[in-house]
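pinned: reference chain
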Amino acid sequence: MTETQDPDAAPLRVRTRAIFTHVPHPYIAARKNRGPASVAEQLPATGRFGKANKWLAVRISAGVGTMACAYVFAVIALISLPAALSSGSLIIIVGWVAQTFLQLVLLSIIIVGQNISAAASDQRATDTYNDAEAVLHEALQIQAHLQAQDEILQRLITNASASASTSAAG
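pinned: its structure tokens
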């Protein structure tokens, strides 16, 4: 038994709207404008006093946080070593080691290590930002590909409907 369509019946209606509409998240535009975070941006710098503190902290850390400064501090500390040793007092020698040498020299070395860690952290943040940017680009490419497929499917559905209407009318 074959089905026949009533010639007076309305033809099949085909939806012509898109199956999916991409709406980007508002964070995407904000993230693009902001860029990756860096360690230098983390100090508060509101007002003149805050900006001056940030400037001074960065300059002092940059100067003291070098191995050259650690060597200078070691030489300065070693100047007082003969006096500490000649005292013959264990408390004075331990005090010189703890308060003069360790604190003075290790300060610069610790800052150097922190600077290296901060640079590595900034690089990781930049890499993560770039990775997220690449993933977003790939996701947008996938959305464009799916949109192209939706358009082809929509044309196929339209053509099939038109073909069905023509063969039913004929």
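why pinned: DSSP finds five helices and no strands in the chain. The chain has one domain: 45-169.
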